[in-house]
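testing teh design pipeline on a random one, pls ignore if ur not involved
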């Protein structure tokens, strides 16, 4: 069982310790918080970093990253042959998700597993693709399940040095991009 620690905006799972608990009597809570879930949902786009066979980095945008449960993220391999091949050779992965209007997000570090047709993770992810994009607009080759071992908060320097607040940044950046923030 993993023990979670929080230090300087980083949540880390450590082997061998007790898990963080929710309200008294409730089940243990995972590493992914409600705020992390909200950021993943609102961002709509994530960037997945893997390591190529030659040791060079590979960074790939993913529009299908979802929170699967309290300890896992998942994305569907629709057009990611290099990312998936890299993960087959080295399952270490980092996922960056930033809400560009809020100017904050998270870096999720962990280990990936490839899940194929018939696997519950694949079926869940494929259903999300179908519900979101219709049938069969995008191919669904495999689902990539990521066990999150570490989550680090990412904030714009505007929070740290400019002493901005989230609501002000949200409205400022929505105006900069010419979009309405719902």
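output:
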């Amino acid at each position: 069982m993993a023990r979670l620690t929080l230090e300087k905006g980083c949540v880390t799972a450590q082997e061998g310790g007790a898990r963080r608990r929710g309200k008294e009597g409730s089940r243990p809570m995972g590493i992914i918080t409600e705020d992390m879930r909200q950021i993943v949902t609102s961002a709509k786009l994530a960037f997945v970093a893997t390591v190529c066979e030659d040791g060079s980095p590979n960074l790939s945008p993913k529009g299908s990253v979802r929170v699967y449960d309290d300890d896992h993220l998942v994305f569907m391999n629709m057009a990611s042959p290099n990312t998936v091949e890299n993960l087959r050779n080295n399952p270490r992965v980092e996922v960056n998700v930033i809400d560009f209007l809020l100017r904050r997000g998270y870096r999720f570090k962990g280990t990936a597993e490839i899940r194929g047709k018939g696997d519950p993770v694949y079926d869940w992810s494929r259903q999300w693709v179908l519900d979101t994009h219709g049938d069969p607009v995008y191919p669904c080759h495999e689902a990539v399940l990521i066990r999150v071992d570490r989550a680090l908060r990412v904030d714009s320097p505007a929070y740290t040095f400019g002493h901005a607040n989230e609501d002000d940044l949200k409205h400022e950046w929505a105006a900069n991009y010419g979009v309405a923030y719902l």
